[in-house]
């Protein structure tokens, strides 16, 4: 299933390349860079019109990518500009049927050249599994000529972007093939490929674990749930207590008996496991790059259907750990399966837990597709650091208030808590629900907006965006 891998970046020599890409700041082009008078004139025009100039001759093609002038305060902004210029450059290569590119830079910071490559490769993603005409993009080879970069830099980026590709493909795969059981099998394949352990709990084992939330959501389905445990624990791990990643794995969400409307809602609900996909992609990248850090990933997975045995509004269920929940809306199911997983995470005595979930439409209303909402009990400096990583990767997060008053909105008359708190502050009350199952430093990341796009955006395709893989990877890398 997961056969969509990115092209690999390799070391190259710009002098011998037929298609050469030069990264430079606007207004800095000169003859010493190897540009002719005609080319310099074209570069001046392009600097005022998008910043990309394609200069073709019989012998070679030169492509100049010009970015705004740098400052120390705007490096993250410049990285994103390079990613977006990479997307624009990729579109140009399609017009001219260019198959190979060699990149070099006249900019001091080598990370910008990697960002340009990142934008190109992320733009090259295709989901062709169900296309009769599997017409692949022409770009086949991407190399970099820069003495400041090492082969290890290329290798690291290759594996991170492979993790993004895997996450995108998992999200794009329909539930008719990507059932909970099939999802777990795909994770097992990736575990073997990246050398992290995978254990899958079947329904009988889930019953033994008393995961009442996962079981209740699964009642309406004829397909069994799974609970997948990934672990990467290298001998040289720097952390004594693991970081735990939890991903919502609802492989399809009809809303259950609280049925969703189809247009603009149910029709994209194969994406309701995007949080789980991001965790899987990040685990793959961490393990393949052999980061010296102990990480655990937990994926509760099921579909949510209105079958004859489906759980109903008004039911009271008991989640793992003994907390009782009054179900008032069966479409608020993600928090139920996450509650079980967050309680399960207690056994690891974690350093920090981060959960990713397409949890609420309220997050989309608050922020849109431009970032995720975060909240939780982790120290403020950790949340601030995650936000800084998000700004650097352009997988941005915005912290929501987590005031005590929101707890009042999920109090139940007949159980410990209820699974919805009303329309006001819905993103936050969902987080407050999850907080009941934690006793450790924890950050909840609601990715409902940025995880699945209805139209392409720069280097992000229509459909699964892979949001969260790069955010998690670089956050974990910063902890070693």
The domain count comes to 2
Radius of gyration in whole Å, from Cα?
23 Å
What is the name of the CATH class of the largest domain?
A: Alpha Beta
Give the averaged pLDDT, no decimals: 95
Terminal residue distance: 33 Å
The number of distinct β-strands equals 20
Number of helices: 14
- Category by helix and strand content: alpha/beta
What fraction strand? 15-25%
Annotated CATH homologous superfamily of the largest domain: Zn peptidases
Give an overview of the whole structure.
There is one protein chain. By secondary structure, the protein is of the alpha/beta class. The chain contains 14 helices and 20 strands. It has two domains: 141 residues, Leucine Aminopeptidase, subunit E, domain 1 (3-Layer(aba) Sandwich), CATH 3.40.220.10; 304 residues, 3-Layer(aba) Sandwich (Aminopeptidase), CATH 3.40.630. The strands form four sheets. Strands 7, 8, 9, 10, 11, 14, 15, 16 and 18 form a nine-stranded mixed β-sheet that branches. The chain has a six-stranded mixed β-sheet with strand order 1-6-5-2-4-3, sandwiched between helices. Helix 3 links the parallel strand 5 and strand 6. Helix 7 packs antiparallel against helix 9. The two termini are 33 Å apart.
């Amino acid at each position: 299933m997961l056969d969509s891998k990115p092209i690999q970046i390799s070391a190259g020599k710009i002098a011998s390349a037929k298609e050469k890409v030069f990264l430079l700041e606007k207004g800095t082009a000169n003859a010493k860079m190897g540009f002719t008078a005609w080319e310099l004139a074209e570069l001046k025009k392009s600097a005022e019109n998008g910043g990309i100039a394609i200069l073709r001759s019989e012998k070679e093609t030169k492509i100049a990518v010009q970015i705004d002038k740098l400052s120390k305060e705007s490096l993250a902004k410049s990285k994103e500009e390079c990613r977006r210029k990479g997307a624009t450059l990729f579109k140009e290569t399609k017009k001219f049927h260019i198959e190979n590119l060699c990149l070099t830079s006249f900019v001091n910071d080598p990370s910008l050249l990697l960002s340009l490559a990142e934008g190109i490769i992320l733009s090259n993603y295709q989901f062709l599994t169900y296309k009769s005409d599997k017409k692949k993009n022409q770009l086949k080879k991407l190399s970099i000529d820069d003495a400041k970069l090492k082969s290890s830099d290329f290798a690291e980026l290759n594996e991170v972007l492979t993790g993004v590709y895997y996450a995108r493909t998992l999200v794009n795969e329909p539930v008719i093939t990507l059932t909970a059981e099939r999802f777990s099998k795909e994770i097992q394949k990736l575990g073997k490929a990246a050398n992290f352990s995978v254990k899958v709990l079947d329904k009988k084992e889930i019953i033994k674990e008393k995961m009442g939330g996962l079981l209740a959501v699964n009642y309406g389905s004829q397909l069994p749930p799974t609970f997948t445990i990934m672990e990467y624990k290298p001998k040289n791990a720097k952390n004594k207590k693991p970081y735990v990643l939890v991903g919502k794995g609802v492989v399809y969400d009809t809303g259950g008996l609280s049925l969703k409307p189809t247009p603009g809602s149910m029709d994209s609900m194969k994406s309701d496991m995007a949080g789980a996909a991001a965790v899987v992609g990040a685990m793959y990248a961490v393990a393949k790059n052999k980061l010296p850090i102990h990480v655990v990933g937990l994926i509760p997975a099921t579909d949510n259907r209105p079958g004859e045995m489906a759980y109903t509004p008004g039911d009271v269920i008991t989640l793992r750990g003994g907390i009782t929940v009054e179900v008032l809306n069966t479409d608020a199911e993600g928090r139920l399966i996450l509650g079980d997983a967050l309680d399960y995470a207690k056994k690891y005595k974690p350093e920090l837990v981060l959960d990713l979930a397409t949890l609420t439409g309220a997050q989309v209303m608050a922020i849109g597709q431009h970032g995720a909402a975060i909240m939780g009990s982790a120290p403020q400096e950790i949340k601030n650091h995650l936000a800084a990583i998000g700004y650097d990767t352009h997988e941005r997060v915005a912290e929501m208030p987590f005031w005590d008053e929101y707890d009042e909105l999920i109090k139940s008359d007949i159980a410990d808590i209820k699974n919805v708190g009303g329309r006001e502050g819905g993103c936050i009350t969902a987080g407050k629900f999850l907080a009941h199952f934690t006793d450790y430093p924890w950050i909840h990341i609601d990715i409902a907006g940025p995880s699945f796009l209805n139209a392409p955006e720069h280097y992000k395709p229509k459909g699964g965006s892979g949001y969260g893989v790069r955010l998690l990877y670089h956050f974990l890398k910063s902890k070693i």
